[in-house]
Amino acid sequence: MTIASIGAGILLGFTGATPPFRHSLPSTLRQTLGNAGSFLGNLLPFLLVLLLTLGFKIHLAYSLAAVTLGTVLYLRLPPPLVWRLVKENFSWEIVFLIWGIMFFKGILIASGTINSVVKEMSQVGMPPIFLMISLPFILGMVTGYANALIGLSFPILLPFFQANNPSFPYIMLAYVSGFVAVFLSPMHVCLVMTQEFFQADMNRVYRLLIPPVAIFFLTGVAVALVSFRFGG
Q1: How many domains, in total, are found in the chain?
Q2: Residues 86-132: pLDDT tens digits?
Q3: How far apart are CA 118 and CA 14, in angstroms?
Q4: Looking at the structure, do residues 49 and 99 belong to the same domain, yes or no?
Q5: Residue 16 near residue 208 (C-beta atoms within 8 A)
Q6: Are residues 66 and 103 in the same domain?
Q7: Could you report the per-residue pLDDT of 7-25, keeping only the tens digit for each?
Q8: Cα dihedral sign, 85-91-92-96
Q9: Minimal CA–CA distance to 193: which of 102, 60, 61?
Q10: Sequence-separated (6 or more) residues with CB below 8 Å from residue 4
């Protein structure tokens, strides 16, 4: 699924973009290594955030703050420039947008609304395969949060997984249907924050988003079908 996501992003995300090497192909190994070093250097702050968050278990907010401060000090950015960047890039709308989504999500979980939906769907008597696809999709669409969709739906679906042998195809179908919903959900913080920051038209965003998400979903279905076929 990771390969499918990266492949779909490259195939569809760079459509119409002109590779820089088409006009100026590096002629020496030194220039190639220099370009690679420059790329890694520019990527270093991002890698440091990952290292601090995943490697040292530091909260993402603190990791971002530390790396941002370190980058400012390392580049010796003048205070007026830093202040201008803060003013240009800070948005109260985005702050309240993220807060509102997380608050709404918390209300749904704390009030038991989502658990009621899960319970009612499991008691309707629908075919297990339909439940395995629809339940993660609904929870992914409502929460826009991968942890919530897995934590809420998979414990309910666990008996169905265990009752079917092999169970992997069913797990794959539940996984991809849930993540497709997360990718498309208007509750997905990454999606709405990016759309709000760039003031993009949401209809056009979805037109660009649906094809790679469809590739992701069809890849998962293909993997499940192959697993069904070979029984593993």
Answers
A1: 2
A2: 887 777 877 777 777 778 777 777 777 766 766 676 677 677 788 88
A3: 39
A4: no
A5: no
A6: no
A7: 998 888 887 776 655 545 5
A8: negative
A9: 102
A10: 215, 216, 219, 220
Q: How far is CA 199 from CA 89, 105, 144, 192, 216, in A?
A: 13, 24, 20, 10, 26
The residue behind tokens 């985005």 is 94
**What is the token pair recorded at 114?**
């989502």
pTM score of the predicted model: 0.68
* 54 and 74 both lie in a single domain: yes
Q: What Å distances lie between residue 153 and 67, 68, 95, CA to CA?
A: 36, 37, 29
- Residue 43's domain comprises 29-90
Give the per-residue SS3 of the chain.
CHHHHHHHHHHHHCCCCCCHHHCCCCCCHHHHHHHHHHHHHHHHHHHHHHHHHHHCCCCHHHHHHHHHHHHHHHHCCCHHHHHHHHHHHCCHHHHHHHHHHHHHHHHHHHCCHHHHHHHHHHHCCCCHHHHHHHHHHHHHHHHCCHHHHHHHHHHHHHHHHHHCCCCHHHHHHHHHHHHHHHHHCCCCHHHHHHHHHHCCCHHHHHHHHHHHHHHHHHHHHHHHHHHHHHCC
Cα–Cα nearest to 230, from 168, 173, 180: 168
